[in-house]
Give the backbone structure.
Amino acid sequence: MSAEQVQAWFPRLTGTNHRITSQSTPQYNCAAWAAGCTDKWWEPGGGKGKFWPPGARTTLAARAYIEVFESEFGYSVCPDGQLEPGYEKICIYTSPPGVFKHVARQLPTGWWTSKLGRGEDIEHQSPELLEGDRYGHVTIYLKRPVPTE
Amino acid sequence: MTPTTAVLDVDSSGVRIETVPPPLNWMEMPLNRQIVISVSGSGVPMTRYLADRFMANLKSWRDETLFSSTYEEIVSHPAYHRIAALGSGAIPLIIEDMRSGGGFWTEALTRITGVDPVPAEAQGDNQRIADSWETWYSTQQR
């Protein structure tokens, strides 16, 4: 992706508050990446182009994503994105309220990692750096105990 | 008018032309000349107009949905619909884009062809989806 493309979509990203960490690929999306998966595009709604756990709610409401991260990956809603030892967090962006736009995952460093559509993965200093017209705003945080090996 | 034949070779960086026999500056040729362009390796004839429209819409679609997080947003884009509206003539170009790593084409191809060769277990797997369509396309060439 070019700097111009990044700036157009995410005006708050600068050369020092994010870094690119992968090649671009359509193979997986933000939800899959937040779940630690890189082999499918995770999204509700049916159709061959998207994977969604059988029996899960199939709307594009943020509620559907919350329920999947709770039931499939052991997350639960929490009040904020502060780094907590022993926990990993995700945050969900919505726009308009209640409609899913993006999900990012927190790293042990306190930075966050996001898969940008079919573009690259990036690490970014805070969730707010991706807020704006395209991805809306962070409205929900979830956390789970760091999985043990 | 005498048809002029050129070979159109589509790759991820855009459109290259290999011409047979003399070189042609096809982008400057007047539209009232009949030009038959075959996609490299397939022998499928298509017009300059279709190739132009495909590439223009492909660029628009890619640029404007590059970071879209949802599949629905990506395949709902007007340029994607315009590509699907090009019909069967666009299939070779779509297949070439899939070979180059482009995804999200199953909706357009199903709309154009009326078939769905993707098995249920490939749901959400863009690589397997592309492989399914590649296999289908190969059978159509025989």
